[in-house]
Design goal:
By secondary structure, this protein is α/β, with parallel strands linked by helices. The chain contains 10 helices and 13 strands. It is elongated and about 75 Å long.
Length: 300
Amino acid sequence: MRHDLNDVAVFTAVVRLSGFTAAGRELGLPGSAVSKRVARLEEQLGFPLLLRTTRSVGLTEAGRRFYEHTSRIPTLLEDAVRAALGSQNAASGTLRITAPPDDAGVIWSLLTGFLQTHPAVDLELTHTLERVDLVAANIDVALRGGPAPDTTEFTAHKLFESRILLAASPDYLKRRGTPLQAEDLAVHDGICMDPWAPNAIRRVVGDGGYVRVHLRNRVRANSLETARRAAVDGLGIAPLLALTCRAELDRGTLVEVLRGALPDTAPFWALTPKGRTRSGAATALLDWLVARTDIAGGPG
């Protein structure tokens, strides 16, 4: 059965942008024309794809399954062009990356070095803490930290691990005292950092091995930068990645406490979509990142 691929593209845009008006704006069509095209596609298919109300547009079960496949069409077409032009063998073109917010500059220091070495590559970088559908968003590489990711949808490339340490500001330690053993943490304020080490401050090494220390989480954050700033501002003791607080430790605005108390390290990953031809730029970036093992080293 043949279908107009333009109608399929219109349907895909409606779902991706959550509405006829937004899809029409992107496609340069009036909302009424967008609605008619989707209706024509539904008529050809013989079943409804969308649940329409006055305020929103949802998917039927058939529509959801249909969209799972149609959302991949732009990526498949781009892969076909790459293969035809042979660009998969050259580090050139636009490289689309997502990464967590990076006020410490760790990620950017890696990417800027890569761009300087590969002048034919252009970069589109989106900072987000959200888990992104790499295929639907047409992302080449996602940089993520934390536990080993689910690999059913993408290939995970482990880049490095960073030591996790406990740190606090000199002002906080002057006010509250410096913990000398793991059990001393029980009377201190903690800064809980997700997703890198959500339980790190509860699993420390005491004289007799592992102990669980329960302390007040004065600040709970899912951002490395927020946790680091909270510690610098004297709000508590934070588990931080060594590679993100080197400058503060060198300046003395943070002090490491109970060195070696946290046995874990935090891994960092590069994720690429499965079932998709990897561009030359993405392959070159992965090779570059894997080679930069020096970034993992922590202070001291």
